[in-house]
Amino acid sequence: MTETRDDAPAQGSVDAAPRRGVSRRSLLGGGIAAGLGVVAGVGGVLGAQHISAAHASDETVDLLQSHPFYVAEKGMPQPGISTAPQRYCVFMTFDLAAGAVARSLQVLLARWSAAIAQLQAGKTVGAVAPARGVGAGQDTGEALDLGPASLTVTVGLGPGVFDDRFGLADKKPAKLAELPTLPSDRLDPALTGGDLSLQACADDPQVAYHAIRDLARIARGTATVRWTVLGFGRASAGPDQTTPRNLFGFKDGTRNVSTDADFEKWVWAGDDQAWMAGGTYQIARKIQMNIEIWDADDVADQQKIFGRKKVDGAPLSGGAEHTTPDFSVKDAAGQTKIDMRSHIALAAHENNDGVKILRRPYNYTDGLNQYGQLDAGLLFLTYMNDPEHFVRLQRRLGASDLLNEYIGHVGSAVFAVPPAPATGSYIGEALFA
Questions:
Q1: Residue 266 to residues 229, 256, 382, Cα–Cα distance (Å)
Q2: Which own/partner contact pairs does 159-162 have at CB distance under 8 Å and 24+ positions apart?
Q3: CA 304 to CA 316: how far, in whole Å?
């Protein structure tokens, strides 16, 4: 087990002049803007819609900001759930090795907890270069001097953790089970399931990648990587963040869970197992988007599919982005202005007995597919206190959502997410008591 110290940074820690906070405007205003200038002559000839920074807040990125991993009070959630969504995410699932036993899992969770505490503080998980200059480093070193960048790492436990291998069957939460087959599923077995999950989110993509990379190294011999997704451009917003856009160009997550009351009612679990009190459930879906087909569709039809205007995100029933949609308002032809097969109509809590889930998705791209088209979509990460809430919503969406013509769910997994550990403890420690 790698020894780490909180009172003294490991060799190569980020204490030496980390990068300072920068705003999104300054990030975009440099090299990217210069590159766009090359094609300004061409773009000027074509019609263009003015993009104004006045429509969005500055949302300064502070690369020195950090989130603590340990909590002072029992039953508090892990970071990376209600935390304001960062700009990048690396999600990875693992299968426990054939020879792993309960002790192996316990040691791994303890080592991960110690390492995550270091990483979220902007430190390394050990020496980058051995003291004598010979041998492999304990930390891979690519995040040196980058700062904490608001890194959070969230750990989940899949249904397989509670099978006969580890003697934990009596600790399995009643609500934790593999998801049933759902409409629109086109699941790839290589992108489905997993015994453990790691969700690393940060405002610097290399910080998030470094965290997952080093935690995967720690898992060697105990767990192997099953599937992973690199996410960018958060597709959900916290209470003080402007609503971002998905790769279809629409604002995503306008009506996301945001109040303490809704978190208590819909996200945090009480549960039948004491070790899960204050935790939650995570469902991960890799949703492939038919980008190039979508791009050829009429914008009016795109708006009908979502039930919102593309530019400002206002519901088609009228008002502004955050106006509550009115699904009864009709047009001159007597049709509801918001099609009841639209995405927002089928997902609205008003039409689902009040059911809400917390969305924390990210866009992704995997280059080109076998047909030479863009292979991209949405890493849909969501949290709720009962996975059945997601199943209920997805059955409605998968059966009749107008958006289904342009998407397919290719990856899927469900995990129990224990509460955060107190100082001196580790994730899931109560499982082994």
A1: 26, 11, 12
A2: 159/414, 160/95, 160/96, 160/193, 160/194, 160/195, 161/96, 161/105, 161/195, 161/196
A3: 8
In the predicted structure, residue 32 carries a pLDDT above the cut 80: no
Question: How far is Cα 73 from Cα 420, in angstroms, rounded to an integer?
Answer: 9
pLDDT (average), residues 342-358 = 98
Q: Which two tokens stand for residue 278?
A: 């204050």
Nearest to 176 by CA among 78, 279, 285, 102: 279
Q: Quick one: pLDDT band at residue 22, thresholds 50, 70, 90? A: very low
CB atoms within 10 A of CB 302: 20
3-state helix, strand, coil in the chain (%, to 5): 30, 20, 50
Reported as a single tens digit per residue, the pLDDT across 108-130 is 999 999 999 999 999 999 999 98
Among 301, 108, 141, residue whose Cα is nearest residue 213: 141
Residue 240: predicted pLDDT:
82
For residue 76, which of 226, 263, 211, 268 has the smallest C-alpha distance?
Answer: 268
- Can you tell me the distance from the alpha carbon of 291 to that of 5, in angstroms, rounded to the nearest whole number? 47
Listing DSSP states for 244-289 in one string gives: -B-TTSSB--TT---SHHHIIIIIS---SSGGGTT-EEEEEEEEEE
Percent of the chain residues past pLDDT 70, beyond the cut: 87
Alpha carbon distance 286, 410 (integer Å): 6
Cα radius of gyration rounded to whole Å, the chain: 22
